[in-house]
Specification:
Layout (H helix, E strand, L loop, with lengths): L2 H10 L5 E2 H8 L3 H13 L3 E4 L2 E4 L10
Antiparallel strand pairs: 1-3, 2-3
Helix pairs in contact: 1-3, 2-3
Length: about 70
């Protein structure tokens, strides 16, 4: 699993939203790198963003983690 997939999976596991800072320790990556990837996912329409939190899209099975 590449880092983009890991970030997507982490966001999907937190439907209440997650900040970049919250992903840093669990994913073991620097904040800037995670922010770049999360914003890329947002720009591609794969996640939602509200203020500083990223949210999974509702009813999106492209990155199903089950």
């Amino acid at each position: 699993m590449n880092l983009e997939e890991k970030v997507m999976q982490y966001i999907k596991e937190h439907p209440g939203g997650v900040r970049i800072l919250d992903m840093e320790k669990p994913l073991g990556e620097m904040r800037m790198k995670l922010g770049f990837i999360a914003n890329k996912l947002f720009d591609e329409g794969k996640v939602q963003k509200n203020e500083q939190k990223f949210f999974p899209l509702e009813n999106d099975s492209r990155f199903d983690i089950s």
